[in-house]
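tool_call: predict_structure(chain=1)
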Amino acid sequence: MADETKCQCQRCTVRSLMGPAILITIGVLFLIGQFYGEFGFGRTWPVILLVIGAIKLIESTSSGEGHNKQ
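tool_result:
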């Protein structure tokens, strides 16, 4: 178990950004909703789908060279 290392390939690195990017996006959307009532979460939630799509697109074009298959 001690010799197992986390994969450092570009694809896995981009994939690990998915959770934080979604949380930051949700936080920003709620913040915008607080300051600008007409742009509440009900109208801006599709931005989350755009962020997910952008990360998946970057992930699919990233290099998998050096990927650790565990």
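agent: The chain is about 65% helix and 0% strand. Proceeding to next step.
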